[in-house]
Please model this.
Amino acid sequence: MCLGIPGRIVDVREEAGLRTGTVDFGGVRREVCLAYTPEAGVGAYVVVHVGFAIARVDEAEAERTLEVLRAMADAVTGELGEPLPRPGGAAG
Model:
């Protein structure tokens, strides 16, 4: 299964000539390549697939999608390596 997971960009930087950053997926943070979303800056929401941000998405859509993904904990764990935390800090 292939998932595109929405997350919020928390920092942006250049590494070896490649635009990268940290993306927060509702409590899980990962390093992501941002080269395909040059318009997305800190605070923007992006859809990430296999470590690459592939599209911008608005915050409301990102939150709706994250809630659905929390309900699909096994699929998310397989993609991110750990479950998304529940709102308020409790893991799913």
Remarks:
- Helices lie at 59-71, 73-80.
- The first helix runs from residue 59 to 71.
- The longest strand covers residues 5-15.
- The CA atoms of residues 6 and 47 lie 4 Å apart.
